[in-house]
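BUG: 3D viewer hangs when loading the predicted structure for this chain

Environment: internal workstation, default settings.
Expected: structure renders.
Actual: progress bar stalls at 90%.

Input used:
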Amino acid sequence: MMKKKTFFAGIISIVLLVPGLLLAGIADTTQLKAKPVFGKEAKVVTYILDNNHYRKIILNDSLSSVILDSYVKNLDNNKTYFTTTDLASFEKYRQTIDDMTRAENVTAAFDIYGAFRKRFVSRMDYIMKNLIHEKFDYTTEEFYETDRDKEQWCKNEQELNEVWRKIIKSQALSLKLAGKTQPEIEKMLTERYERFRKSILQFNSDDVFSLYMNSITESYDPHTNYLSPKAADIFKQSMSLSLEGIGARLQTENDYTKVAEVIVGGPAHKSDLIHNGDRIIGVGQGEKGDIVDVIGWRIDDVVKLIKGPKGTTVKLQIIPADMGVNGPSKVVQIVRDKIKLEDQQAKKSVIHYEKDGKSMNLGVITLPSFYMDFDAYQKGDPNYTSTSRDVKRLIKELQEQKVDGLVLDLRNNGGGSLTEAIELTGLFIKQGPVVQVKNSLNKIDVQTDDNPTITYNGPLVVLTNRFSASASEIFAGAIQDYHRGVVVGESTFGKGTVQTVIDLKRFINDPDEVGELKLTFQKFYRVTGSSTQNKGVTPDVKLPTALDPQQFGESSNPSALPWDEIRGTLFQKTPVINDRVISNLNKSYQDRLKTDKSLAQFVNDTEEVRESYRETKVSLNEVTRKKEMEEAEKKKASRTSLNTTLPNKEIPSSDLKEMDDEYLREGLFVLGDLITTKIG
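Structure tokens produced before the viewer hung:
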């Protein structure tokens, strides 16, 4: 019921991190007050943002209004605590947050939070007294809207009571359909809300200030964040990949903890048991441990349960994403581990394919990230591992196996080293600019590949999905702009910005600990001058997707920096790909849609899942809800694999037509078309 925040259960991604709030100890349970150092931090952060953020906007009355709305939403994301009367009382801050912040005044944060806390306690009391033990009538036809953004704020307590009646009724019905008796339902709901009350009442002044400051910083863009002292420590740990867990990035969405990203090479990815968009509703320890209900929990508390020592088992009760809001839950077990460098390294395989009497061997290189072993490099180890070195070696091995073409699979590659993205591009082009980097002072730096050697000049397909981001987008964009290869798949994430971390201790001399500021200060542009920000890279051959850009990717965040263009830089296109080639490849794809039953089924299944994502109402009628759950299970059982992400295991050398990875299969078909038309 808090803002959508993201955390990692085991590892935090530098590329896509949005820090969450961290519980800083036992809170003062009477009245929370600002520490004197908070005002100093707020003033310094504002100064840095005004003068150094890429966006070059100033904290003024207009931005104050945005911050107020953001802070209110962060506190009451579901519109289930505040009334319109409360909102009216906050209006005095709408155009004054800028002036207050520069005056080292953070009163607004604690005044508004105080109102939230009062409403929260009142709601919890009402739930415990009036709703937990109610015998609901599940024969009436009524619905609960889970997407509260579609609903208006409640005018009074009576309207709040009705919203909460539906919330508790929906949760009780879910438990009933899971086989729980009425006493068990009442016990579970009581424990759930007692735990929730305890969690919120442990909020202390550091937590309130952190939430408020992130409402300010994220009004500039979603990747600019205030890191409290404890959050900064977690961020530093993540840089060394020292955390152990399941290898998944989590975020809060409404009442649920949602899997935002499964990290390639981690335990979750290897198990293939959880996927992007799955909702975690319970966590248990060990194979025999009881499942603890985590609906409504703070994200950091859920992460604490999921994280744990390497080799131990965690049980997760999840609602699979492709089952929609009406889907049944299931329990999976994952053994915790560290994500090792070797799990992130590039791997190769060879797929056999015959078309029009021509026998072909198609090479595939899967690339989970743009990595470099900096420690080994700094120690002078001549055999240090890096993306470009590994891919170069794999290409030579594939050439010895006489492959006719190559697919470079960048699905779920969230980025990494910019240098490695440039070096990798250099393996496929003679030489020239790869990316332009523009800073907040409008200075443009053109980063180039200066090596005239080409490692591979044959037919090339780059496979992307919605979670290919940052460095992946730079590489895919360069290959597309140089007409060196064909990009196939989904439009990429759209993260075309660069962040740096600033320690506020440099500006504040105070005995109290101060935090850090993660600041967006640069933006990526392709050699054509087009930004990768927000729009990402659009494939030459678009494959079906269940993911709505308004729900997934950079464009899903209203404060994301916009797409724009700068002047292109001079570069030499190759004669390999042209508009006619792209047109023919898309025609072949459309022909396969008419004749390939597997592809047609994949498209149909994708549309079904897309529709399930859009459905946000749940029935509070037992017969209807049960029927919807059964239908969701039947549809899932009949579907082909809808996972557009990187496979969780090495691809076996096999016949292309028998492959069950529909995205890779289609990418290889496109590669086959390139080869048979003697392109490259």
